[in-house]
Model the fold of this input.
Amino acid sequence: MNPELSRIRLAHPAGAAAEVYHHGAHLTSYVPAGGSEVLFVSRRARFDAASAIRGGVPVIFPQFADQGPLPKHGFARLAEWVLPDASETAATLVLTDSPETLHLWPHTFLASLAVELHENALEMRLDVFNRADEPVEFTAALHTYFRVADVREAAVLDLKGTSFHDKELDRDRAQEEDELTVAGPLDRVYRDAPDRIRIRDGRRVIVLEKEGFADAVVWNPWTEGAAKLDDMEDDEYLRMICVEAGSVAVPVRLEGGGRWSARQRISVQAL
Done:
């Protein structure tokens, strides 16, 4: 990790810890009290002002993936956010429009990410304020990379019956399986996803709870995808799975002067 990039370390009296970079308002570590690391960060992740950090929780705004004219996943994850408020267990980072963002996306806005550390959970809240009079549309997500012991033995729960778009196969269907397991490249957008999704990882269960985000994305690049990423070791796909809270299938429409807010909560339970 590059010490030249500013970061905030949060610590709870009970022993929980987290780390957030100003660059991208990027959460790179969350360790619950008495537990182990919950987030995956690649050993080859680049920590420089020009790159997105591979792993942790990138903030996706105002465009998800390549669903529009902007650079992939928008500009928020590459921007330097300002830290107006922080304590031992909480921090809020802010991003506003600038000449650089207006060149890419001609809208005035303020986005804030609040991170709050509890003894047994970590909460993140993303707020977007439309500072113009006219409405604006955007997509957004918290692109969370979860660390797992072996993705081939992990499973994503609670998605049975939910409709999704399979980006690998370019088709729509509803999930029939009780559990989603990973045995190849996976890239799915679950529409109107449940607000509670669990990941079984060995003897622990990671719980993702969301509010305000309509959808969920599940992604693993698998062998060929990982080999194409120059900021990820070829075998690291085995140690991660992305389960992302987002509003990506249908853009958010925010009226002039309006505010949009969404949040996610991460916790861990023992089996």
About this structure: The CA atoms of residues 20 and 27 lie 4 Å apart. The chain is about 5% helix and 45% strand. The chain has one domain: 7-270.
